[in-house]
Amino acid sequence: MLQAGGRQSAFTKELNVHRSVIHRLWNHYQRDQNASSRRGSGHRRITTTSDDRYLLQCARHQMTLTARQLASQLFAAVGRPISRQSVSHRLHEGGLFARRPVVCVPLSPAHVRARLH
Predict the structure, then answer these.
(1) What residues have CB less than 8 Å from 67, skipping those under 6 apart?
(2) Among 3, 8, 68, 86, which is least packed by CB within 10 angstroms?
(3) Which of 38, 37, 55 is nearest to 46 (CA)?
């Protein structure tokens, strides 16, 4: 769109990004004829998106499995080793966190009636 003569300010409003983002991408494209993003500086992910879905599915179906057991189950299914910590990170990204059932004293029928009143 910029090659066709569009203005950078119009893109910032349309895409809801800062002006410097459009300016930097346009300069990068003009210099390299490529606007693809560079690889980040962090460690590469060892799991794929399908591996992540498989872990979440297994964790939801068998809620008593630990992260270490899920890692061994994924290794058996895919053949790629994964650490316990990586499994824990993937479960957190999927919204699953460790939890303990709350231990409480059951209410007597008199307590139930009193609470309802």
Answers:
(1) 84, 85, 87, 88, 91
(2) 3
(3) 55
| pLDDT of the residue at 33 | 74
* pLDDT for residue 77: 94
- Tell me, rounded to whole angstroms, the distance of Cα 31 from its chain centroid: 33
**pLDDT greater than 90 at residue 74:** yes
Max mean pLDDT range (11-15, 34-38, 53-57, 59-63): 53-57
Distance separating alpha carbons of residues 76 and 40, to the nearest angstrom: 30
Neighbours of 37 (CB within 10 A): 7
Taking the model in full, what pTM does it have?
Answer: 0.55
Where do the domains of the chain lie? 2-32, 49-94
